[in-house]
Design goal:
Layout (H helix, E strand, L loop, with lengths): L1 H9 L1 H21 L12 E7 L5 H16 L5 E9 L2 E8 L6 H15 L9 E6 L22 H15 L15 E6 L1 H7 L3 H12 L3 E7 L2 E6 L7 H5 L2 E4 L5 E3 L4 E6 L1
Antiparallel strand pairs: 1-3, 1-4, 2-3, 5-10, 6-7, 8-9
Helix pairs in contact: 3-4
């Protein structure tokens, strides 16, 4: 070992050259190595987009989103399904587990299921698109927050989380806010004996609920591609409101309501 050290000390010229070579190689590696602050990721997400010109958000949700969602909910490997509706447009985002074999095959399967339900959708649909979602690949995960003391069965807590998400989305640069809080949905449990004795069919009840929550545009305006829609506020969908929906009335406020035939409650 001492002999090797003596050689290095006596031959400083070679030592200097070795040092220069190592330094140049290090600098070359530093500048030539590919770097990306946001490296590309592949996500197992697929987006379904449906366009129905001039339809209000409520109509898109009721006439387009719900029927398609019902058809897609039983897809194998489905991890999460989210949807959003706006004037003339519905977008459904599906996230699948990492163990699915082919995202392209899953895309074709979704196309087939959407095509099978098109005959039940309103006429006038201008476009139906099913494609792998690349938008999420352009987003960077920022932070994870934990809110303690939340009760998934408490509607006020759900409203609090929704407001918190809305405020977070208002911050410039934030593209998406997600929550693990499972949504509450109103469930209606009917007593079949009562329905049969009154000769009321499920389709009659369904139509009564749809008619109650339907809202039509008051005004629709399109100026050089900029769209404005004015519509009445939709009533809040909650069990208490559903119980009060009339199935028929005698004109004096007396009649049969859904609450007289069914139990309505929040469920997950």
């Amino acid at each position: 070992m001492s002999r090797w050290i003596d050689q290095m000390v006596s031959k400083t010229k070679w030592v200097n050259w070795i040092t220069i070579i190592i330094t140049v190689a290090g600098l070359a590696a530093l500048f030539l190595t590919k770097r990306d602050l946001h490296p590309p990721f592949e996500f197992n997400n697929i987006t379904v987009t449906v366009l129905l010109p001039e339809a209000s958000p409520g109509e898109m949700e009721r006439l387009i989103t719900y029927p398609i969602e019902e058809k897609l909910l039983k897809l194998s490997g489905l991890k999460q399904l989210k949807s959003s509706s706006e004037v003339g447009k519905t977008k459904i985002n599906l996230s699948f587990r990492d163990d699915i074999k082919s995202l392209q095959e899953k895309t074709e399967e979704i196309r087939s299921k959407v095509q099978s339900v098109l005959s039940d959708l309103p006429a006038g649909i201008s476009r139906v698109q099913v494609e792998p979602d690349t938008e999420e690949a352009n987003q960077i995960f920022l932070a994870n927050y934990a809110l303690q003391g939340l009760d998934e069965k408490n509607q006020d807590h759900h409203l609090f989380v929704s407001e918190w998400k809305r405020r977070m989305m208002a911050i410039p640069g934030i593209a998406r806010v997600e929550t693990s809080l499972r949504p509450l949905r109103p469930y209606i449990l009917f007593e079949n004996k009562k329905l049969q004795s009154l000769h009321i069919s499920p389709s009659t009840i369904r139509q009564a609920i749809l008619s109650h929550y339907q809202f039509q545009p008051v005004s629709y305006y399109n100026n050089q591609g900029e769209e404005w829609l004015i519509e009445m506020d939709r009533q809040a969908i909650d069990p208490e409101q559903i119980r009060k929906i009339p199935l028929f009335s005698d004109g004096q406020g007396q009649g049969l309501k859904i609450g007289d035939l069914a139990k309505v409650e929040w469920r997950q």
